[in-house]
Amino acid sequence: MSWKQKIEPVAILLSILLIVVLVVDFAKHAERFNPFLDKPTKCSVELVAARGIGSALGPGAESSSSPAFDLLVHVDNSHVFAIRDGGSDVVVSYAGVPLARGRAPAFDVEAKEAVKVAVGAASRGVGIPDELFLLMVQERRSGATPQLQIDLWLDFGLFRCSVELHGEQRASQCDKLNFIYTS
Fold this sequence. Notes:
Elements: H1 3-33, E1 42-51, E2 68-76, E3 83-85, E4 89-94, E5 97-103, E6 107-109, E7 114-122, H2 130-141, E8 147-154, E9 157-164, E10 171-173, E11 175-177
Antiparallel strand pairs: 1-2, 1-10, 2-7, 3-6, 4-5, 4-8, 5-7, 8-9, 9-11
C-alpha cells in the first residue's frame, strides 16, 4: 500500500469534517444574514430626570422655570445590516408645545444589535408659557399624570414616544412615523 492510498481516507475524513464545520458555522449565523429575517429598527425612550418642571407644578410655583430633561434612548437594530445616525434632533413637548430641545450624539448600531444613547434636552432659559403652565397644574390637581411627547428625528426615521412626567411609566416604546418631504 503506497502512501497515497494511506492518506486518501484521512483526506476524505478531513474534508468531511471541514464541510460539517462550515455548515454548522453558517447555520449559527444564518439569521444575521438572511434577508427574509430583516425586521425594522425599534426605539424606546426612558425619562431619567426632569428639572425645572416638577417644582413648577408644586404649590405656589411660577411658570418662569426653565425645563430640562435627561433621556436614555434605546435603539434596537433588527435589520440584517448596520445603521448609523450622525446626531439627531430631539424635541420634548407637552400638549403639542415644545418645552425643550436637544441633540443626540452620533452613533452606530451593528446588525441585530442594540445601543443606549444618553440625550439631554433643555429650553435654554425659556420658561413654560402661562397657558400651558395652567393646563399642567389643572391636570395635576385633577389626578391626571402629565404626558410628555418626545420626538426623535433620527437619520433612519422619525420616532414619537410618550412618557409620564411623574408617573410610573417613565419609559416608552416609540412609534415610527411616516413623513413626506416636499419642496
